[in-house]
């Protein structure tokens, strides 16, 4: 039985101020048609999100391309029925939305608030404020989408699969409030937002087979993330050069550890997704230990790790690793220095 009910109350995925219908919507689309192509694509996405507002979530469709889910890369996936595969895909998509929420609320917003307390040129300060406002809009959009898909999991809370120990949250809040001391978190913002761009493009490429609310959420998310990657790079250009050489060395190693521990290897949260699937399909419970084992084994699977981070997925970040001595010598998921790649 799928979690959630199509069309159930649980929130809207429409950004604030976009309610329109009938003749007003047609008029708005005519205005959009007169704008420059890039701006027109963004406003078309907003208009489509408004149209989708009153439509139920289609639980007969995938929420993500299959290859973006860990279990797809294991032998167990081939043994699942089409209904089981689809449901796993939907549960993993909810977890993926939680990841975005966690990153943008617990990490991104805290870093941006700290950065805004520093003196910056007017242009960059205005960009940081816009960056923060857009991150909050994204968080609200993915929060509403999860609430709409599974109100029993997300009413009154943002996280079901992502469960971060309190001690880690306390330590991370302390470090995030000190971006000048810990620029490693800016590297994390850059790599994750660039990776998010790749995922959004992949979702749009498969849009005919993906649930429309998810397609539009990622279309809107992608529209802002391009600018966010540029801001990440501009801030890094300033803070990394200011850092002491010893600080750069420590922060680069901290980055490599955090990426592997929290953003690469399938561990606790993704095991909870598999366990939720077995909870909905009792016939899978006997094979649950093997599914867990295969998911955990992906940490040693180079092909899977390259599917998470590569020069195709995060080209700007990897180019920066190439240009940064502290990163070139590290073992980072999917990364090899450019001279090794072309050798």
Q: What does this 3D model show about the protein?
A:
- Helix 2 (37-52) packs across helix 9 (212-242), helix 4 (82-116) packs across helix 7 (166-176) and helix 8 runs antiparallel to helix 9.
- Helix content is 67%, strand content 0%.
- The protein has 343 residues and is an all-alpha fold.
- It contains 16 helices and no strands.
- The chain has a single domain, classed as Ribonucleotide Reductase, subunit A (Orthogonal Bundle), CATH 1.10.620.
- Residues 1-36 have low confidence and may be disordered.
- The longest helix has 35 residues, at 82-116.
- The radius of gyration is 21 Å and the shape is globular.
CATH topology: Ribonucleotide Reductase, subunit A
Q: Identify low-pLDDT runs.
A: 1-36
Q: Give the C-alpha Rg.
A: 21 Å
Tell how many strands the DSSP assignment holds.
0
Largest sheet: none
CATH class type: Mainly Alpha
- The number of distinct structural domains comes to 1
User: How would you classify the helix and strand content by structural class?
Assistant: mainly alpha
CATH H-tier superfamily:
Ribonucleotide Reductase, subunit A
- How widely separated are the two ends? 52 Å
Count of DSSP-assigned helices: 16
Task: Please tell me what the overall shape is.
Answer: globular
What CATH architecture would you give? Orthogonal Bundle
Beta percentage is under 5%
Q: In which range does the helix fraction lie? A: 55-70%
Mean pLDDT value: 84
From N to C, what is the helix and strand string?
Answer: HHHHHHHHHHHHHHHH
